[in-house]
Amino acid sequence: MIGIKKRGKKNNTQGKSGAQQVLVSFFATVVALLLGMLLISALGFDPVKAFSSMLIGSFGSLNAFAETLVKMTPLIYTGMSFALASRCGLTNLGMEGQLYMGALAGTAAGIYLTGLPAAIHIPLTMLAGFLGGGLWGLIAGSLKVRFGASEIITTVMLNTIAINFIDYMVNGPMIEPPGINCQTPPVQDSAILGNLIPGTRAHMGFIIALVFVLLFWLYLWRSKPGYEVRVSGLNMEAARYSGINTNKNILLVMFLAGGLAGLAGWNEIVAVQIRMIPSVSPGYGFDGIAVSLVGNNAPLGIIIGAFLFGAFRAGGNRMQIMAKVPNAIVSVIQALVIITIVASQMVLEKWNDRKLQQESGSKEEV
Amino acid sequence: MGVLNSISSYIATDIRMAAPILLAGLGLLLVNWSGLLYIGAEGTMLISAFAAVAGSFYLGSVWAGLLFGMIAGALFGLIFAFLTVTLRANQTVVGVALNVLGASLSATLNRVIFGVETTIAKIDTFETMAIPGLSKIPVIGPAFFNHMPIVYLAFLMVPLISFFLFRTQQGLNLRSVGENPRVSDTLGINVYRTRYTASILGNMIIGIGGAFLSTGLLNFFTEDMVSGRGYIALAAVIFGKYKPAGVMLAAMIFMAGNVVSNILQVSGAAIPYTFLTMIPYVLTIVALVVFASRAVAPNALGKPYKRG
What we know:
The structure holds two protein chains of two kinds. By secondary structure, chain A is mostly helical.
């Protein structure tokens, strides 16, 4: 998304050095954090106490650090989901719904497939999760290709539809007998992921997510279909004229992006919740947008972004308890991060333009 | 008479529910015609819904609440214009950010000011205002002429904005900025100022829609109260082909889904509640699918403009 617009001459975002981009993200995050502290003190709280309790909550102990890993794992997936769609020039706001559908499909595979060894059962639940999210994403993709319906709107509508559908499923067909709590029965033991750090909640799902980041990189930067996706993202029209089947790309990317978000849901089921509940995600889907933007839609950046916002989520609860600051402030900071990132990118670009104009002297440069 | 009375009350419900969507849609219309693609209406409505409750709570008047809501909306409009017009940032990304900001800031302020207790602070809210004479007409009166002031305002704005957009010089200027900013610029229209004005005014109107949710339809603020209405309004604009009357029609049709779900619930049909809740959202998608390809968006919609 960033970088698909026409840019000034040589210094476009795509060509912009990685170092410069890292600097922008870092600077923007610091500014957003300072603004967040300002807001916290304006609301009458102690910003230092708020942030220190947040830090303790996310890094203060092995348990806290493990919690950060737990919270960042789904964000890696949703960040990749938004980034992949962005690379193709699409805006996938449907990660939340895709996550829910992936979680539901993963749960179903985890409960109803029985008698399998873990080595087979876990990959099957993963496949189910990917397909659940992927097909949900594909709906938005095909509505765009067939009817020109904006994916920005359809994905958001599909979020609400998915969440209501899950509400129905966990209260009806999939409810745990005898039907007192609105939740499904737990998945089979053979579907549950192992522990990563003994004695904590950190689980192997984190490692699997990192493997998917590698696949994400291989696909986009080391394969021909991935190259075509990126070309479509830079300029859909030009890609079409050069013989790339852009419609096929939109369908494929919405499927894959949905699948990645679905894996976030799958991860929550087989590693954290063990069963489907109506509130399986506290907004991981929406967090993916900020994760992807902080990471400039790039693999390493997404991991860093997920780490940042995962730490916020892990520490937010402690901040709420210790400093009495509502943890919704974490999302305020997230919004501020997005705003400061786009703003500083544009300021930098303007500055580059001006420098370019000065260098070219009297030559015509518009 | 029983049937007629329930039809009359269904129409009244539809009109009342359509009002916030209509207001948000009309606000978006102004923003869109100036060439700005704003997907942050959800965030604007949330922050305005909260501001209205806060204003009504502190100043004891629902009209003060409305003013607060409009100011909050205007601020969002200003932020959006600064980022997308002056800095030329990606409009979709900024819209997303304002959605997140509206949702989280309203939630934070709500928890700080009103706490998380279950008791709801008592605030002044809008009351129905029967139009003398007209409201006494059987069936039609209760359906159309016994509403809250904001509902009348919303529907009165349809011809007003229509007149402004298509019959005044300022409206023409606004639309030409959205169609072709470069040419407008050479004709002496200030593109930046036009877009700033459209963004601020448009968001104010969206803000009225948000304020009506919390001080008209309800009498308190909850964190997910807008529940997709900002996006439904976006769909209403496309469905309505960027015309005020079209937006009105779209809002009425989308919210008729609520009426249908009410009827189904009352009739005891064996459809789970959650499926009934989905109806307006499904309708929105269907409407987009059927009509999206025929909508004519302003030419420069979503494209950043660089003066020079």
